[in-house]
């Protein structure tokens, strides 16, 4: 959860758009860092279903920046064997942004390196509700529905559950992010604002994760 762009800009007397720009630049660095570490799956919370309620100028700035970043970076990610997936709704974003996302997903579909899932216009509750609606539309027999069947209808179908959920900016909440997939995730909160979250902070998060005993509800 990439939190803190606005506070980062405010601390420096900058417009909030500069904070979002710095955040997207850091996203590129973090993706490269984690790919080098051999991480297989990375999901970034770029824009939530609730973010539409922010000031119109800020929302438009984020959307324009997302278009520019995807258009500029998709080819490089492809060359680095990164597979891109989009998690979220597509009916409320612009045709241009939807087109850039679809093109990036299609171009990288056969890559075998890190899978980068971009959660854009994403909400965990919405995802769960839409999965149920799609099962009804497909005529799925209720007697066949279990956790595995339900997971097939989520945006993350085919992806593993989350091992480690990192939130920057110091808060301790998941903000409607991957509610189903984080049932037994380890949570790590960093006080560092997202644009300043670099390799050394990733090291700390991974060290903390490595020191935990994961029980998954069982007694060890």
Describe the structure.
- The chain has 220 residues and is α/β, with parallel strands linked by helices.
- The chain has one domain: Undecaprenyl pyrophosphate synthetase (3-Layer(aba) Sandwich).
- Helices cover 44% and strands 13% of the residues.
- Strand 2 (83-87), helix 4 and strand 3 form a beta-alpha-beta unit.
CATH class membership: Alpha Beta
Report on the biggest sheet: 3 strands, parallel
Helices and strands: which structural class? Answer: alpha/beta
Task: Find the count of extended strands (DSSP E, 2+ residues).
Answer: 5
What CATH architecture label applies?
3-Layer(aba) Sandwich
Assess the beta-strand content as a share of residues. 5-15%
Radius of gyration: 18 Å
**What is the residue-mean pLDDT, rounded to a whole number?**
96
Helix content: 40-55%
Number of domains: 1
H and E order: HHEHEHEHHEEH
Which regions contain 5 or more consecutive residues with pLDDT less than 50?
none
- How is the largest sheet built, in terms of strand order? 1-3-2
Distance between the termini: 30 Å
How would you name the CATH homologous superfamily?
Answer: Decaprenyl diphosphate synthase-like
């Amino acid at each position: 959860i990439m939190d803190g762009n606005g506070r980062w800009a405010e601390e420096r007397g900058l417009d909030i758009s500069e904070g979002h720009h710095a955040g997207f630049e850091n996203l590129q660095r973090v993706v490269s860092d984690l790919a080098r570490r051999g991480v297989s799956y990375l999901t970034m919370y770029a824009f939530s279903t609730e973010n539409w309620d922010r000031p119109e100028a800020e929302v438009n700035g984020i959307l324009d920046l997302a278009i520019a970043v995807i258009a500029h970076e998709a080819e490089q990610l492809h060359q680095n064997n990164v597979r891109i997936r989009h998690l979220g709704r597509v009916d409320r974003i612009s045709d241009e942004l939807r087109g850039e996302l679809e093109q990036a997903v299609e171009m990288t579909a056969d890559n075998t390196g890190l899978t980068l899932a971009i959660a854009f216009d994403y909400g965990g509750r919405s995802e769960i509700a839409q999965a149920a609606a799609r099962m009804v539309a497909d005529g799925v027999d209720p007697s066949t529905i279990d956790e595995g069947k339900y997971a097939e209808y989520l945006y993350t179908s085919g992806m593993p559950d989350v091992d480690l959920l990192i939130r920057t900016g110091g808060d301790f909440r998941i903000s409607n992010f991957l509610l189903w997939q984080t049932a037994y995730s380890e949570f790590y909160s960093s006080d560092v604002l997202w644009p300043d979250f670099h390799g050394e902070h990733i090291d700390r998060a991974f060290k903390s994760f490595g020191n935990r005993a994961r029980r998954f509800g069982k007694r060890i």
